[in-house]
Amino acid sequence: MKTDTLLLQVEDLHTVFYTDAGVVRAVNGVEFALAPKQILGLVGESGCGKTVTGLSILGLIPQPPGRIEQGRIVFEGTDLLTLSDKAMRRIRGNRIAMIFQEPMTSLNPIFTVGYQIREVLRIHRQVSKDQANGLTVEMLQKVGLPDPDKRMHEYPHQMSGGMRQRVMIAMALCCSPRLIIADEPTTALDVTIQAQILELIQRLRVDTGTAILLITHDLGVIAEMADTVAVMYAGRIVEHAPCDDLFDNPCHPYTLGLMQSIPQIDQPLTGTKSLQTIAGVVPSLLDLPAGCAFRERCNRVMTKCRQDPPFFPITDGHRVRCWLHER
Fold it and tell me: Which of 124, 172, 228, 251 could form a disulfide with 97 if both were Cys (CB 3.0 to 4.6 A apart)?
Protein backbone atom coordinates (compact mmCIF):
# COMPACT_ATOMS: atom_id res chain seq x y z
CA MET A 1 0.00 0.00 0.00
CA LYS A 2 1.49 3.35 -1.07
CA THR A 3 2.14 5.79 1.75
CA ASP A 4 0.56 8.73 -0.12
CA THR A 5 -2.75 6.82 -0.41
CA LEU A 6 -3.00 6.05 3.30
CA LEU A 7 -5.45 7.78 5.61
CA LEU A 8 -3.97 6.54 8.89
CA GLN A 9 -0.58 5.13 9.86
CA VAL A 10 0.10 3.85 13.37
CA GLU A 11 3.81 3.29 13.90
CA ASP A 12 5.48 1.61 16.91
CA LEU A 13 2.76 2.75 19.31
CA HIS A 14 3.41 2.21 23.04
CA THR A 15 0.67 3.12 25.54
CA VAL A 16 1.53 2.54 29.20
CA PHE A 17 -0.45 2.82 32.44
CA TYR A 18 1.38 3.50 35.70
CA THR A 19 -0.66 1.87 38.46
CA ASP A 20 -0.14 1.11 42.14
CA ALA A 21 0.38 -2.54 41.18
CA GLY A 22 3.01 -1.74 38.56
CA VAL A 23 3.50 -0.69 34.95
CA VAL A 24 0.89 -1.99 32.49
CA ARG A 25 2.10 -2.02 28.87
CA ALA A 26 -1.36 -2.12 27.30
CA VAL A 27 -0.18 -1.34 23.75
CA ASN A 28 3.33 -2.49 22.98
CA GLY A 29 4.73 -1.58 19.57
CA VAL A 30 1.51 -1.73 17.54
CA GLU A 31 1.75 -0.88 13.83
CA PHE A 32 -0.87 -0.83 11.05
CA ALA A 33 -2.16 1.35 8.24
CA LEU A 34 -5.61 2.18 6.90
CA ALA A 35 -6.63 3.50 3.47
CA PRO A 36 -9.83 5.43 2.61
CA LYS A 37 -12.95 3.19 2.41
CA GLN A 38 -11.00 0.30 3.95
CA ILE A 39 -12.23 -1.72 6.94
CA LEU A 40 -9.44 -3.00 9.18
CA GLY A 41 -10.52 -5.57 11.75
CA LEU A 42 -8.65 -5.49 15.07
CA VAL A 43 -9.39 -8.79 16.77
CA GLY A 44 -8.35 -10.57 19.96
CA GLU A 45 -9.43 -11.64 23.43
CA SER A 46 -10.65 -9.15 26.02
CA GLY A 47 -7.75 -7.24 27.57
CA CYS A 48 -5.39 -7.59 24.62
CA GLY A 49 -5.22 -3.82 23.96
CA LYS A 50 -7.75 -3.30 21.16
CA THR A 51 -9.80 -0.56 22.83
CA VAL A 52 -6.72 1.17 24.24
CA THR A 53 -5.34 1.33 20.69
CA GLY A 54 -8.52 3.06 19.50
CA LEU A 55 -8.52 5.48 22.45
CA SER A 56 -4.84 6.27 21.81
CA ILE A 57 -5.66 7.33 18.24
CA LEU A 58 -8.34 9.70 19.53
CA GLY A 59 -6.15 11.06 22.33
CA LEU A 60 -8.55 9.80 25.01
CA ILE A 61 -6.06 8.02 27.24
CA PRO A 62 -6.55 9.32 30.82
CA GLN A 63 -3.37 11.06 31.98
CA PRO A 64 -2.49 10.03 34.63
CA PRO A 65 -2.26 7.05 34.93
CA GLY A 66 -1.91 6.50 31.18
CA ARG A 67 0.66 7.85 28.78
CA ILE A 68 1.63 7.32 25.15
CA GLU A 69 5.36 6.85 25.54
CA GLN A 70 6.45 6.19 21.99
CA GLY A 71 5.30 6.03 18.38
CA ARG A 72 3.50 8.03 15.71
CA ILE A 73 -0.18 8.26 14.74
CA VAL A 74 -0.21 9.92 11.32
CA PHE A 75 -3.68 10.95 10.14
CA GLU A 76 -4.03 12.74 6.80
CA GLY A 77 -0.30 13.52 6.91
CA THR A 78 -0.27 14.94 10.47
CA ASP A 79 1.13 13.18 13.53
CA LEU A 80 -1.73 13.44 16.03
CA LEU A 81 0.67 13.02 18.94
CA THR A 82 2.23 16.41 18.14
CA LEU A 83 -1.08 18.31 18.32
CA SER A 84 -2.34 20.35 21.25
CA ASP A 85 -5.51 19.40 23.14
CA LYS A 86 -7.39 22.19 21.36
CA ALA A 87 -6.30 20.95 17.93
CA MET A 88 -7.29 17.38 18.84
CA ARG A 89 -10.75 18.54 19.89
CA ARG A 90 -11.25 19.93 16.38
CA ILE A 91 -10.45 16.49 14.93
CA ARG A 92 -12.19 14.30 17.51
CA GLY A 93 -15.85 13.81 16.61
CA ASN A 94 -15.26 15.68 13.35
CA ARG A 95 -12.59 14.06 11.15
CA ILE A 96 -12.29 10.99 13.39
CA ALA A 97 -15.33 9.62 15.22
CA MET A 98 -15.87 6.69 17.54
CA ILE A 99 -18.78 4.31 18.05
CA PHE A 100 -18.43 3.12 21.63
CA GLN A 101 -19.11 -0.39 22.86
CA GLU A 102 -22.13 0.34 25.06
CA PRO A 103 -24.29 3.31 23.95
CA MET A 104 -26.26 3.37 27.20
CA THR A 105 -23.11 4.40 29.07
CA SER A 106 -21.78 6.60 26.25
CA LEU A 107 -24.91 8.70 25.67
CA ASN A 108 -25.71 11.32 28.30
CA PRO A 109 -28.89 10.20 30.12
CA ILE A 110 -30.07 13.73 30.98
CA PHE A 111 -30.19 15.05 27.38
CA THR A 112 -32.36 13.98 24.47
CA VAL A 113 -30.58 12.12 21.68
CA GLY A 114 -31.45 14.94 19.29
CA TYR A 115 -29.75 17.48 21.54
CA GLN A 116 -26.61 15.36 21.72
CA ILE A 117 -26.33 15.00 17.95
CA ARG A 118 -27.19 18.67 17.45
CA GLU A 119 -24.39 19.77 19.79
CA VAL A 120 -21.81 17.84 17.75
CA LEU A 121 -23.02 19.62 14.61
CA ARG A 122 -23.03 23.06 16.22
CA ILE A 123 -19.53 22.62 17.65
CA HIS A 124 -17.87 21.29 14.50
CA ARG A 125 -20.01 22.74 11.71
CA GLN A 126 -21.07 26.08 13.24
CA VAL A 127 -24.62 25.73 11.89
CA SER A 128 -27.73 27.39 13.29
CA LYS A 129 -30.07 25.58 15.66
CA ASP A 130 -32.69 25.12 12.94
CA GLN A 131 -30.10 23.77 10.49
CA ALA A 132 -28.75 21.43 13.17
CA ASN A 133 -32.28 20.14 13.87
CA GLY A 134 -32.83 19.42 10.20
CA LEU A 135 -29.49 17.64 9.86
CA THR A 136 -30.20 15.62 13.01
CA VAL A 137 -33.49 14.33 11.64
CA GLU A 138 -31.76 13.57 8.34
CA MET A 139 -29.01 11.57 10.06
CA LEU A 140 -31.47 9.59 12.22
CA GLN A 141 -33.42 8.79 9.09
CA LYS A 142 -30.26 7.74 7.27
CA VAL A 143 -29.36 5.22 9.97
CA GLY A 144 -32.84 3.71 9.81
CA LEU A 145 -34.33 4.98 13.07
CA PRO A 146 -38.15 4.93 12.73
CA ASP A 147 -40.05 8.20 13.14
CA PRO A 148 -36.90 10.37 13.56
CA ASP A 149 -38.89 13.60 14.17
CA LYS A 150 -40.32 12.02 17.32
CA ARG A 151 -37.27 9.99 18.37
CA MET A 152 -34.93 12.98 18.44
CA HIS A 153 -36.90 14.30 21.44
CA GLU A 154 -36.52 11.06 23.41
CA TYR A 155 -33.92 10.18 26.04
CA PRO A 156 -31.54 7.20 25.73
CA HIS A 157 -33.43 5.13 28.34
CA GLN A 158 -36.59 5.35 26.22
CA MET A 159 -34.93 3.44 23.36
CA SER A 160 -33.95 -0.15 22.75
CA GLY A 161 -30.30 -1.22 22.48
CA GLY A 162 -30.48 -1.32 18.69
CA MET A 163 -31.99 2.17 18.54
CA ARG A 164 -29.33 3.59 20.86
CA GLN A 165 -26.61 2.05 18.71
CA ARG A 166 -28.14 3.70 15.63
CA VAL A 167 -28.09 7.01 17.49
CA MET A 168 -24.40 6.48 18.25
CA ILE A 169 -23.73 5.77 14.57
CA ALA A 170 -25.71 8.87 13.54
CA MET A 171 -23.66 10.94 15.98
CA ALA A 172 -20.42 9.49 14.61
CA LEU A 173 -21.44 10.17 11.00
CA CYS A 174 -23.05 13.58 11.35
CA CYS A 175 -19.84 15.47 10.53
CA SER A 176 -18.85 13.14 7.66
CA PRO A 177 -15.66 11.82 9.31
CA ARG A 178 -12.84 10.32 7.27
CA LEU A 179 -12.29 7.61 9.91
CA ILE A 180 -14.65 5.81 12.29
CA ILE A 181 -13.33 3.70 15.16
CA ALA A 182 -16.08 1.16 15.90
CA ASP A 183 -15.43 -0.50 19.27
CA GLU A 184 -17.54 -3.68 19.52
CA PRO A 185 -20.47 -1.92 17.79
CA THR A 186 -22.78 -4.95 18.01
CA THR A 187 -22.06 -6.13 21.57
CA ALA A 188 -25.22 -6.91 23.60
CA LEU A 189 -27.44 -6.75 20.51
CA ASP A 190 -29.49 -9.74 19.36
CA VAL A 191 -28.44 -11.35 16.08
CA THR A 192 -31.15 -9.69 13.98
CA ILE A 193 -30.26 -6.18 15.14
CA GLN A 194 -26.57 -7.06 14.87
CA ALA A 195 -27.02 -7.95 11.20
CA GLN A 196 -28.89 -4.69 10.57
CA ILE A 197 -26.15 -2.61 12.24
CA LEU A 198 -23.37 -4.35 10.26
CA GLU A 199 -25.30 -3.84 7.02
CA LEU A 200 -25.75 -0.18 7.92
CA ILE A 201 -22.00 0.28 8.56
CA GLN A 202 -21.15 -1.40 5.25
CA ARG A 203 -23.63 0.77 3.33
CA LEU A 204 -22.42 3.98 4.92
CA ARG A 205 -18.80 3.03 4.21
CA VAL A 206 -19.66 2.68 0.52
CA ASP A 207 -21.85 5.81 0.39
CA THR A 208 -19.54 8.15 2.32
CA GLY A 209 -16.05 6.71 1.66
CA THR A 210 -15.36 6.49 5.38
CA ALA A 211 -12.59 4.18 6.57
CA ILE A 212 -13.39 2.00 9.58
CA LEU A 213 -11.23 0.52 12.32
CA LEU A 214 -13.48 -2.31 13.53
CA ILE A 215 -12.55 -3.51 17.02
CA THR A 216 -14.12 -6.85 17.97
CA HIS A 217 -13.54 -10.29 19.43
CA ASP A 218 -16.08 -11.82 17.02
CA LEU A 219 -14.38 -13.58 14.10
CA GLY A 220 -17.74 -13.98 12.37
CA VAL A 221 -18.11 -10.20 12.21
CA ILE A 222 -14.51 -9.92 10.98
CA ALA A 223 -15.11 -12.45 8.19
CA GLU A 224 -18.20 -10.57 7.03
CA MET A 225 -16.90 -7.01 7.29
CA ALA A 226 -13.12 -6.62 7.17
CA ASP A 227 -10.79 -6.11 4.22
CA THR A 228 -7.68 -6.72 6.33
CA VAL A 229 -7.25 -8.14 9.81
CA ALA A 230 -4.77 -7.52 12.64
CA VAL A 231 -4.78 -10.12 15.42
CA MET A 232 -3.73 -8.75 18.82
CA TYR A 233 -2.40 -10.63 21.82
CA ALA A 234 -1.06 -9.14 25.06
CA GLY A 235 -0.70 -5.64 23.62
CA ARG A 236 0.96 -6.63 20.33
CA ILE A 237 -0.17 -7.48 16.82
CA VAL A 238 0.88 -11.08 16.20
CA GLU A 239 -0.57 -11.56 12.71
CA HIS A 240 -1.64 -9.13 9.99
CA ALA A 241 -3.17 -10.24 6.70
CA PRO A 242 -5.88 -9.66 4.11
CA CYS A 243 -9.11 -11.12 5.50
CA ASP A 244 -9.38 -14.01 3.01
CA ASP A 245 -5.72 -14.96 3.54
CA LEU A 246 -6.11 -14.99 7.30
CA PHE A 247 -9.08 -17.36 7.24
CA ASP A 248 -7.60 -19.57 4.51
CA ASN A 249 -4.15 -19.76 6.09
CA PRO A 250 -3.95 -18.72 9.76
CA CYS A 251 -0.26 -18.91 10.64
CA HIS A 252 0.16 -17.85 14.26
CA PRO A 253 -0.73 -20.57 16.80
CA TYR A 254 -2.93 -18.03 18.61
CA THR A 255 -4.87 -17.17 15.44
CA LEU A 256 -5.25 -20.88 14.70
CA GLY A 257 -6.55 -21.45 18.23
CA LEU A 258 -9.15 -18.70 17.78
CA MET A 259 -10.28 -20.26 14.50
CA GLN A 260 -10.56 -23.74 15.97
CA SER A 261 -12.70 -22.48 18.86
CA ILE A 262 -15.48 -21.38 16.47
CA PRO A 263 -18.46 -23.80 16.35
CA GLN A 264 -18.85 -25.50 12.98
CA ILE A 265 -22.33 -25.89 11.49
CA ASP A 266 -21.43 -29.18 9.81
CA GLN A 267 -19.92 -30.59 13.02
CA PRO A 268 -22.60 -30.42 15.73
CA LEU A 269 -21.50 -30.86 19.32
CA THR A 270 -22.47 -34.06 21.10
CA GLY A 271 -22.37 -35.18 24.71
CA THR A 272 -18.79 -36.40 24.28
CA LYS A 273 -17.55 -33.61 22.02
CA SER A 274 -16.94 -30.02 23.10
CA LEU A 275 -15.47 -26.90 21.58
CA GLN A 276 -11.71 -26.70 21.30
CA THR A 277 -10.12 -24.17 23.63
CA ILE A 278 -6.78 -22.43 23.99
CA ALA A 279 -4.99 -23.82 27.03
CA GLY A 280 -4.06 -21.55 29.91
CA VAL A 281 -4.98 -17.91 30.44
CA VAL A 282 -3.89 -14.57 29.02
CA PRO A 283 -0.76 -13.44 30.90
CA SER A 284 -0.94 -10.39 33.12
CA LEU A 285 0.29 -7.26 31.38
CA LEU A 286 2.03 -6.46 34.66
CA ASP A 287 4.24 -9.53 34.29
CA LEU A 288 4.60 -10.64 30.69
CA PRO A 289 6.83 -13.66 30.04
CA ALA A 290 10.14 -13.06 28.27
CA GLY A 291 10.08 -13.55 24.50
CA CYS A 292 6.81 -14.52 22.84
CA ALA A 293 3.91 -13.65 25.17
CA PHE A 294 1.91 -16.63 23.85
CA ARG A 295 4.58 -19.26 24.49
CA GLU A 296 3.17 -20.47 27.82
CA ARG A 297 -0.12 -21.36 26.09
CA CYS A 298 1.31 -22.59 22.78
CA ASN A 299 1.31 -26.29 21.87
CA ARG A 300 4.21 -25.75 19.45
CA VAL A 301 6.52 -23.87 21.78
CA MET A 302 10.29 -24.09 21.14
CA THR A 303 13.37 -23.00 23.08
CA LYS A 304 13.75 -20.07 20.70
CA CYS A 305 10.37 -18.72 21.80
CA ARG A 306 12.15 -17.27 24.85
CA GLN A 307 13.39 -14.63 22.40
CA ASP A 308 11.08 -11.91 21.08
CA PRO A 309 10.06 -12.87 17.50
CA PRO A 310 10.04 -10.26 14.72
CA PHE A 311 7.47 -10.21 11.93
CA PHE A 312 8.07 -12.80 9.22
CA PRO A 313 6.47 -12.42 5.75
CA ILE A 314 4.18 -15.23 4.60
CA THR A 315 2.81 -13.74 1.37
CA ASP A 316 2.37 -10.20 0.09
CA GLY A 317 0.54 -8.35 2.88
CA HIS A 318 0.51 -11.36 5.22
CA ARG A 319 3.01 -11.34 8.08
CA VAL A 320 3.23 -13.15 11.39
CA ARG A 321 5.19 -12.69 14.61
CA CYS A 322 6.20 -16.32 15.26
CA TRP A 323 9.50 -18.24 15.13
CA LEU A 324 7.76 -21.14 13.35
CA HIS A 325 7.87 -19.10 10.16
CA GLU A 326 11.53 -18.07 10.31
CA ARG A 327 13.23 -18.61 6.98
Answer: 172
